[in-house]
Structures are given as structure tokens and as C-alpha cells.
Amino acid sequence: MAKILIVDDDKDFVSAVSLVLKSNGFDVAIANSRQEGMEKFDEDNPDLVLLDVMMDEPDDGFVMAQSLKKKVKDIPILMLTSIGQVTGMDFDKDSEMVPVDDFEQKPIMPNILLEKINQLLGK
Amino acid sequence: MQIIDRQKVNEQINDLKKKYGDDRSALMPILQDLQEIYEYLPNVVMQETAHALGIHPVEVEGVASFYSFFRTKEKQGKYVIRLCRTISCDLAGKSNVARQLENELGVKFGETTKDGKFTLEYTNCLGMCDQGPALMINDRLFAKVDPEKASQIIADCRRDFLKSDFPKVVPSDVKKAGPILDHGLKPAEALKKALGMSRSDIINTIRESGLKGRGGAGFPTAVKWQLAGAAKGKNKYVVCNADEGEPGTFKDRMLLYEHTDILLDGMTIGAYAIGASKGFIYLRGEYLYMKKYLEEALKNRRSENLLGKNILGKDGFNFNIQIRMGAGAYVCGEETALIESLEGYRGEPRNRPPFPVDTGFQGNPTIVNNVETFIDAALIISKGAEWFNEHGTEKSKGMKIFSISGDCRHPGIYEFPFGIKVSELLKEVGGEDAKAVQIGGASGHCISRKDFNRTIAFEDIGSGGSIIVFGPDTDMLQVARNFLEFFVEESCGQCTPCRDGNPKLLEGVEMLENGRCSVAYLNELKKLGETIQNASKCGLGQSSPNAFLSIVDNFKPEILGRVPEAE
């Protein structure tokens, strides 16, 4: 079964999403910071990463996405964030600065999340 | 009365529109040039400017009345004398110079002589704190002025002969250089290296270096650049904050003049990293004498393809820089107020969020960095992150340029690592017998001898580089008065705690001076100060009571129970 790494400092969000993913048959790994996320990525070798933007630093998600793509070029990254609502900032995919495969706003409905994940995993 | 030909005004405005553009952001430079022509801004000039830019005349008057360098009521004198009243010049004998100027001219401050030759004004910080008292006549600076010299300068002006010991750009007194000031880099060296790197690698190198904003707030530079780089937007902007208005700060004046190319390299690298095609240097009005010099430097860089299209052969990388002059408003050092000013509005800080990295100049992603930050960024790209972060502390990496003035034997510009103890710094500058030290300018904190073993670093006492030393004979209540007068004058007036709170604190200082302040009322004033800190909208308001509060805390026995001289 596909393994998904969730990197997010919002523990409530992480527990809700892992519940949804596990009940749909995915293996789940969890990290609450960029640093922990990079370690878990090396340990768990996930098939897809769900990534938050603002963690310890406001740009942690972007930095991590860049590092991940340098390590494994085709690792699918789905960026989930509420940064737009919190700060009014408007970001989009960009191969250099925001190298993610898709971008979704929080909160997200479970069925849409699953649909996006399956789409990115090529199912 | 001057008769002004409306048609001629319109022709002049049309020419200026061609030079500066025809949108609202051209308002400030157009008004500055028109004031140069008419020596003030008559109503008809403001009205025609408003029509030409498609805005209401009240908007133009609102802007002109906000900035202290614009005159809307009366014609200014041929020579506008602006005497610095900041604390460092005050300690160096400003009051005697002021009295002598009034005696020579027969007018008070704020007035113009009847023959229309002289206007006498106070100004806040000319960036000459180590060479005070300082004054400025039109765009010419005079340092170390005493009453006799003041009289001589007036006599020279009367003969229309401005004689000065100083060249137009007054040399800075660098007392201690380190790896930053002795960088040994050639112009464009850092830029060439940067253009061979990817945008994300540039930002990652800055991140690894741990560089934090040198203006004082200490926001991580890489985060700012990364967010602006990631933000959606076709037009992105790079702004160099050269509005060095914090009393006691003069290091940017030196950096702008002596390290111009490295600064411009830093701005261009920033533009490449975030994807910007236009940049501004927002130069404070008091540094007008530096404008021509900087314009010349920009022109040279354009001719060498270090600015312009496809810079150094990098396809698609187009970037240009314009200089925009401030007009005597301290609050414009706050980045959102600076952006408002660039857009042609009153320099009133914005609510945040949204942040400038996403919604900056004209709603576009914008990075605003201090002069020193851009220089550090260029050096980091050239010499590597490790070269930079081998100095400093865990949370405050690198070397810092300090402007040191006041009661010390060797005032001037110093380069020290972050984490230096106040006592070590005082030893270096010859201020061991100091009674107090103001760290971070008027908005910083005033510490007493018991705290001299503390360190200057973002995790202890943060600073944008202004250090003012107070000797054993300094009256600390006078220091508090000077800083509060500064904030009362410089508050933009937008929010109540800062606008109405600071005059109340100043009134409290007057009560203390007259020995008429109870401890209970002083405690109320402290509470008011804390409210100003918590409830003000921008950094200026939030930090305005700092000096007062720290002086009350550290020097209570000295300021209570005074007996006025008259009694």
C-alpha cells in the first residue's frame, strides 16, 4: 500500500488526516517540522508527501519542497496550507521556488483530499 | 505676492510626468521638483499637480502637509538651515549653536527672515551623530559646528558664498573595520557568481548564513526573499531602505557612499532571487547630497550591463533601479510606511497582514531590506555562508556595523560581532565611565551600569546599530525629554495610543522636571507606556515609550523629587 508522509505542525490536522488516510488503506508517517520531515523522508521512503507551508518558519514548506525535489526528482508533493487565509498571501506552483505537484487550501474535504492523492499517485 | 502662470505650471508638470511617470507614485518626486522651482508649494501648483495625476487636490495637500520637507504655507528662504536636534547633537552643544543662529538671523526656529534669505528649522538626525552638532543648508552638510562657526557660515551665505571645510559628501569616521568593511570585493564579483547559481540556491545560501535584517527588527532575510520569490505576481520589486532616520544611526550613510557597488550587487542579487525587474533606493531627504553620486553609480552600472536588460548576458533577467527621495518623515523607515510613501501617499504604516512580500508596492510582491542587509547578502553569496556565520551568536549570526556616538572618546563607525558585551564595546570606544547607554536609537532601550555585562544580540538586546553613550554628568530626564519630543513630532498620528499617548508621557517628563509628579502618577504613566507598546499599530508606536520606560526603571532616584531652579 502507498505510504504517505504528512509534514504539518498542526497536530489536530495531522490526526484527522491520518485517520482518513489509514481508513482508506494508506500507510502513514508523521512529522511536525521541516527537520523531522526530512529525517522521516529518508527513513520511511514515502510515495507521496502532504506538506504544510508555515511551520517553525513561515517558509518551511517551500524550503522542504525544494530539498525533497533535489533528493527525489519525481516525488509527488501535495501542498496543503491555510497561509492564504492567515496572511492573505497568494502562492502557486513554480518549478523553482514552489516545486510542488499540487496546491490545496485548508480546510479540505476528505473526498477531495483522497481524490488528489490518488490522482498524484497515478491511480 | 508671486504671480504664478498656471499654463507654465502645467508645462512643468507635463515634463515631470515624462520623467517620473503619470501614476500616483510620481507624486512625491514631482512635488519635490516643483518645490525646488517655486521654493514652496503654492495652492495653484498643488491643484494642477492633482489634476495632472487625476487625484483630488486635498490628496495632494494631505501628502505635502505630512512630510516636513514640503512647505505649503509660505515661501522658504533661499537658504534653509536645518539644525539637528537629536540627542547626540544635543550632548555636543546644539543649544548654543541654536541660540547663536537665532541671534545672527533675528528670527526664531520655524521662521523665515524678512529678506527671504534664510529659513531656520530644526530637523531630526542628519546622520552626523559622531560629528555633531550638525546642520544642513539646502543640500550641504556642516559638522562639528560651534557658535563661532555658525556665525561664519551665516556670513558666508549672506555673501552667497557657501564655504565649507567639508566636501559635499562628508567623510565617515570608520574606527574599526572587520570582515564586512574590509571585504576586498570588486564590483560585480558577487553578482557574477550569483547569476551562475539557481534562485533557490541563492536563498538557501542566505538561509544557511543565518542573516537577519540589519535595520533592527531582525527578520530572517532568506524567509523574506523566499516568500516574495514564491508569491504570485508578474511585477515584483526590490526596495533598499536607505531612510536611516533612527537617531544615533549613521552607518548607512557611510555604506551608501563607500560600498555603493556591493550594495547595488546585493539589490540585483535579491532581484534575481525573487524574480523582480524593478528596484528603488528610498533615500532619506536629509541625504539629498548623496543622490547625484548614487545616480552616477547607477548610470555606470547601466553602461556596464550590470543593470538593464539581460544583465551580464543572463537571458530574461532585466532589472533597473530608481532613486526616490524621502521628505523628512522618520516613520517612513517602517517598511509599509515606506511603501505608502513610494506610492505617493502619506507615510502611514499599513495593517499587517498582508505583508509586503506578497502585497507590497502597488499590491505586488516586494522585499524591503536595509542597506547593510543587501551588502551582507552580496558578501555571503561571494564568500559563502560559513564565512559569515563563523562570527556572532547562535541566534544572531555575523558581524554588525555600529554607529557609536555620545560621551565617548572615539565616536564613529565600528564593526563588531553580534554578542559583544556592552562593557567590551564601551572599552573599545573610550566610554568606560558611562552612566547609561542607549541601544537601538530612540526606539531602543536605555540601560544603566548594572546591565553593562549584557550582550548586543537579537536574543538579548537587539539593535539596528545605534549606540549612544551617556557620560556621568548626563541628566537622564533630559534624555527622556529629547526622545519623547522626537516621537511626538514623528508620530504619523494615525493611531490613538501613539498620537495621544506620547504627548501625555512628555507632559509627565515636564512634571518630573518641576518636581510635581507623584509616584502614583508615575506608575500611571508607566501603565500608559505599556499600553502604547501593546496597542500601537506599527513599530514606531510600539517602541516609542521604550526609552522613557527604561529611564524610569533604571534612574528613578535621579528623576524623582526634583526642585526647580527657580525655587
Could you walk me through the main structural features you see in this protein, from its secondary elements to its overall organization?
- The complex is a heterodimer of chains A (123) and B (567).
- Chain A is of the alpha/beta class and 123 residues long.
- Chain A has a single domain (3-120), classed as Response regulator (Rossmann fold).
- In chain A, 42% of the residues lie in helices and 19% in strands.
- Chain A has helices at residues 11-23, 34-44, 60-71, 83-87, 110-120; strands at residues 3-7, 27-31, 48-51, 77-81, 102-105.
- Chain A has a five-stranded parallel β-sheet, with helices on both faces.
- In chain A, β4 (77-81), α4 and β5 form a beta-alpha-beta unit.
- In chain A, α2 packs parallel to α3.
- The termini of chain A are close together.
- The mean pLDDT of chain A is 90.
- Chain B has 567 residues and is of the alpha/beta class.
- Chain B has five domains: 6-66, Arc Repressor Mutant, subunit A, CATH 1.10.10; 79-158, Glutaredoxin, CATH 3.40.30.10; 179-389, Rossmann fold (3-Layer(aba) Sandwich), CATH 3.40.50; 399-470, Ubiquitin-like (UB roll) (Roll); 476-559, de novo design (two linked rop proteins).
- Chain B has helices at 6-20, 27-38, 43-53, 57-66, 87-91, 94-105, 147-158, 189-195, 199-209, 221-230, 251-258, 260-274, 291-303, 335-342, 371-383, 385-389, 422-429, 476-490, 496-513, 519-535, 539-543, 546-554, 556-559, and strands spanning 79-84, 118-123, 135-137, 140-142, 174-176, 237-242, 278-283, 320-325, 366-370, 399-406, 412-417, 420-421, 436-439, 445-448, 455-456, 466-470.
- Chain B has a six-stranded mixed β-sheet with strand order 5-11-10-16-13-14. In chain B, strands 2-1-3-4 form a four-stranded mixed β-sheet, with helices on one face.
- In chain B, β3 (135-137) and β4 form a beta hairpin.
- In chain B, α8 (189-195) packs across α15, α9 (199-209) runs antiparallel to α10 and α12 packs across α15 (371-383).
- The longest helix of chain B is centred in the last third of the chain and has 18 residues, at 496-513.
- Chain B is globular and about 75 Å long.
- Chain B starts with 5 loop residues before the first helix and ends in an 8-residue tail after the last helix.
- In chain B, 55% of the residues are buried.
- The model of chain B has no long low-confidence stretch (mean pLDDT 93).
- At the A-B interface, α3 of A face α9 and α10 of B.
